[in-house]
Automatic annotation (TrEMBL), chains A, B:
<dbReference type="Pfam" id="PF00440">
    <property type="entry name" value="TetR_N"/>
</dbReference>
<dbReference type="InterPro" id="IPR001647">
    <property type="entry name" value="HTH_TetR"/>
</dbReference>
<dbReference type="InterPro" id="IPR050109">
    <property type="entry name" value="HTH-type_TetR-like_transc_reg"/>
</dbReference>
<feature type="domain" description="HTH tetR-type">
    <location>
        <begin position="28"/>
        <end position="88"/>
    </location>
</feature>
<keyword id="KW-0238">DNA-binding</keyword>
<protein>
    <submittedName>
        <fullName>TetR family transcriptional regulator</fullName>
    </submittedName>
</protein>
<feature type="compositionally biased region" description="Basic and acidic residues">
    <location>
        <begin position="1"/>
        <end position="16"/>
    </location>
</feature>
<keyword id="KW-0805">Transcription regulation</keyword>
<keyword id="KW-0804">Transcription</keyword>
<dbReference type="GO" id="GO:0003700">
    <property type="term" value="F:DNA-binding transcription factor activity"/>
</dbReference>
<dbReference type="GO" id="GO:0000976">
    <property type="term" value="F:transcription cis-regulatory region binding"/>
</dbReference>
<feature type="region of interest" description="Disordered">
    <location>
        <begin position="1"/>
        <end position="29"/>
    </location>
</feature>
<dbReference type="InterPro" id="IPR009057">
    <property type="entry name" value="Homeodomain-like_sf"/>
</dbReference>
<feature type="DNA-binding region" description="H-T-H motif">
    <location>
        <begin position="51"/>
        <end position="70"/>
    </location>
</feature>
Length: 215, 215
DNA sequence: TGCCATTGTGGCAGATACTGTCATATTGAC
DNA sequence: GTCAATATGACAGTATCTGCCACAATGGCA
């Protein structure tokens, strides 16, 4: 295994260039396979009728491993919504502590829709697929709300620190976050709903409408 | 049918006056006992550390019976929030289909806070106890949001029918409901929060502040 | 008052979700 | 090439929740 080993090493380090090492890339791949399996099974049958064991088998991993990637079968179908956490984290530094509360928070949550403005993009197609499924599955909607709730608590803490004494009252901050979150969710829902019925739907326009209405 | 039969009939109907018969009253009593047991155990330990078996034992019923009353241990602590459904149902007829959407929906959801405006009332004390517990227990918060989500779907259907063609667009209706719901939840939370820290707190004033802020 | 349909309850078995732990294999750094 | 870190799988165990059945309590009706 002399030359073979060296070869393997070189390959490994080259791969670190984009994916942080083979290990991490393999992890992302497994994660994606679980998600694909879950979405397919959910679409074929239903969320309730699909077991974790089935998803794990379809993805080629053990049930135990499934739970190392996702906390529940619902979460397996919604990794898209975890990207939201990244979007929020990335946008936090841009929040102006002196700015108007509602405006700043809407600006922050508006980042969530950015990646999906082009209906034809793969990201948008994926999001549409999930949102469509969500419209039929109450348990998925509940899971999204659950994720949203957890995110809310973190965002509130982060924003409270950032706004400091300007908004020491938690009431308005919490409300601003919940409203911004509702605007985003309603926009995605309406977007998927309209495309489902064949209507043309522009996510940017829908989001703007929702935003205006919320004020 | 003799006089005896008539007498029994009358007695039965008299009981229906407050409790709809002994059966229903007994049911309410059992329900309350389960809730009390759950709240006590949750407060003593934590929601996660408390099992359904323990709650059932403390309430003097079998675990099987527990699940005939509540779908989960979290729900057992939150029957208060099911009163919301009754409040909404009662208020639906008063919604003006010609009125402004946001205004009407806020009017409807505002009914939820009505029973708790007097801080000293037993209902308010009970609500405070639950809300305080909720602030420490993420799983209870999640359960409340879950109940809220289910209620939302029903309310949306009812209001869509009531508003008819005036608001054929689901986006604004959904958003109005979600915002009104968030206003109520944030108000209760701030109310409990301020009383917890010893501050004076007027639920009516807080709700008004939240309402103004949301516009 | 007595009969009967309805309804509440408990016990049991079982499916499913999830977690801790250990042994094993793979990866990656030196 | 060796060793530490990490990923996986298998296993056992706990908790949630449901269907089913037998039994008891209730309430309508003759």
């Amino acid at each position: 295994m002399g030359a073979g080993t060296a070869e393997r090493r070189a390959k490994t380090e080259a791969e670190q260039g984009h994916g942080q090492g083979l290990r991490e890339r393999r992890r992302q791949q497994t994660r994606a396979e679980i998600t694909d399996a879950a979405l397919e099974l959910f679409a074929k049958g239903s969320v309730a009728a699909t077991t974790v064991d089935e998803i794990a088998a379809a993805a080629g991993v053990s049930p135990r491993t499934f739970f190392r990637y996702f906390a529940s079968k619902e979460d397996a179908a919604l990794p898209v919504h975890q990207d939201f956490n990244a979007a929020i984290a990335a946008g936090l530094p841009s929040v102006d502590p002196q700015g108007e509360l509602r405006r700043e928070v809407h600006g922050l949550y508006g980042l969530m829709v950015q990646p999906y403005l082009d209906n034809a993009s793969p990201a948008a197609q994926r999001m549409l697929q999930v949102t469509r499924l969500m419209r039929k599955e109450p348990s998925l909607r509940a899971a999204v709300v659950h994720q949203s709730l957890e995110r809310t608590e973190e965002v509130q803490a982060a924003l409270a620190a950032r706004f400091g004494a300007v908004h020491e009252d938690a009431l308005e901050l919490r409300l601003a976050i919940d409203i911004a979150s509702a605007v985003v969710r309603a926009s995605f829902d309406a977007w998927a709903s309209r495309l489902e019925t064949g209507e043309p739907a522009d996510l940017a326009a829908i989001y703007q409408q929702a935003l205006d209405f919320s004020k």
